[in-house]
Design brief:
By secondary structure, the protein is α/β, with parallel strands linked by helices. It is about 40% helix and about 25% strand. Strand 1, helix 1 and strand 2 form a beta-alpha-beta unit. Helix 9 packs parallel to helix 10. It starts with a strand and ends with a strand.
Length: about 280
């Protein structure tokens, strides 16, 4: 038997080729950029997405996958002999993706054991949890054990970030109480966090440099960190943050990932953040 398989969505910002090699299915959210349809943007790399965004004033739009897209992934796992599936989605408070996955799992009730987990997180906050579950699955863990490993990881996962613009976040309606930051971006660089599945203001920093220092300090003050990722939306100063983090964490173990089209639609260009799991 093939053991337990992982399914996630493209908001996790995991490398598609690496995940395909490890038999993790990634269900795509649709991203539209002006007249460019999802069928085209789906084939763009994160670098290409940000290049196209820089060439237009139109803000991208996203929509959740259909239950059928998840059912297709679950069916493929069953056909490949999987004993069960654990599916991890981005926050249900930011997207209908979790509901689509849950509906697909319900439709396949009795055909294959499927657990759907609402990460209440985004980008590599979700992605690190998937990687934790994948390690457990590849070690031969049961469905219950993989689920427990993921839920344990999510309970100690933190996501913080800073933006160059809040236009995308505001127009996308994903601001939460971070609405208080709108209009003050000219004088401050806000730091936000993902708290209980939504975007919340964490602090206000006066400069970009200070905001990056603040993010690095958050990680350093968190105590022992098991996994650490730096995420960015084509930010030119990403290495500055990595250098700061490397002062207290093995640089070779810092995952650096682009914020892809799904989360990038709301973060805007130049966004940068940290996602980490404490011990």
């Amino acid at each position: 038997m093939a053991g337990i398989r992982l399914v996630t969505d493209s908001a996790a910002d995991l490398d598609p080729k690496d995940m395909a090699a490890r038999k993790v299915a990634i269900v795509q959210l649709d991203v539209r950029l002006g007249d460019t349809p999802p069928a085209v943007t789906r084939d763009w790399s994160p670098e290409e997405f940000w290049q196209h965004c820089a060439e237009t004033d139109v803000l991208p739009e996203t929509s959740a996958p259909s239950p059928g897209a998840f059912q297709e992934a679950f069916t493929a796992a069953r056909s490949d002999g999987a004993d069960g599936v654990v599916c991890v989605t981005l926050s249900s408070r930011l997207s209908a993706t979790y509901q689509a996955a849950a509906a697909a799992a319900e439709a396949m009730s009795g055909e294959l054991p499927i657990v759907v987990i609402d990460s209440l997180s985004v980008t590599m906050g979700e992605g690190l949890a998937v990687l934790t579950g994948l390690e457990a699955a590849e070690a031969g863990s049961t469905l219950d054990q993989v689920e427990a490993a993921i839920r344990h990881a999510l309970a100690k996962t933190y996501v913080y970030g800073t933006f160059d613009t809040l236009d995308n976040l505001r127009k996308g309606g994903r601001v939460g109480s971070a609405q208080a930051l709108i209009g003050s971006l000219l004088s401050i660089k806000p730091v936000i966090e993902i708290r209980d599945g939504v975007v919340e203001p964490e602090s206000r920093q006066r400069t970009r440099t200070r905001s990056l220092e603040y993010l690095a300090d958050k990680v350093k003050q968190a105590g022992p960190v098991e996994q650490l990722a730096v995420i960015h939306a084509a930010a030119p100063d990403v290495e500055v943050l990595v250098d700061r983090l490397a002062e207290g964490f093995d640089r070779a173990k810092i995952l650096v990932s682009y914020i892809g089209p799904v989360i990038g639609t709301h973060s805007g260009p130049g966004a940068i953040g940290v996602c980490y799991q404490v011990a």
